């Protein structure tokens, strides 16, 4: 089954404790992206990757890192999480940047 | 810059009622337009799309027509069901490397 898989689904952590949210797709898509969803703000892009080893900042990249060492994986790293990063995070992929996106089921992160 | 504006929700309807969710956009050139749907506890999934003016996208009884003269892409359904309860996002792609989303509209359908 074609899918984007994120883990974990739920994560509660404390300020400053490094964490990684994994994302993997099995559709051989070139493009991958991370979004955060907050009430009243919709989806905002954090980082995206057009291809392996190519990443770029989205609209809200501060406090986040990504890497794209393999085509299928695109982890999101929070080196020192803060409470304002409490949010619902989505990974998505597509054939190309402007193609329809396939989304994972989300990771709900709470930073206390 | 490019942007999408959606009507605020929630939209509350009885089953079998007619649905309209308004979406207008600002963009240079000729963007592609999309509606995504997010069911509770899930990620977004593509509902329908239109890639040029006057195109009509349709899926699962939902329709939206790309109106360049009014820069709109309103979502409609003739008869909603309880199972249509979800959050609906309008989005555009100006053929760059990103989709721009609206803030989402929650639809609640009651039996």
Structural account:
In chain A, a hairpin with a 7-residue loop joins strand 9 and strand 10 (102-103). The mean pLDDT of chain A is 94. Helix content of chain A is 0%, strand content 51%. Chain A contains no helices and eleven strands. Chain B has 111 residues and is mostly beta strands. Chain B contains no helices and twelve strands. Chain B has strands at residues 3-6, 11-14, 19-21, 23-26, 32-38, 44-50, 56-59, 62-65, 75-77, 86-93, 100-101, 105-110. In chain B, the strands form three sheets. In chain B, strands 2, 5, 6, 10, 11 and 12 form a six-stranded mixed β-sheet that branches. In chain B, strands 3-9-8-7 form a four-stranded antiparallel β-sheet, with no helix packed on it. In chain B, strands 1-4 form a two-stranded antiparallel ribbon. The mean pLDDT of chain B is 93. At the A-B interface, strand 5 and strand 10 of A face strand 5 and strand 6 of B.
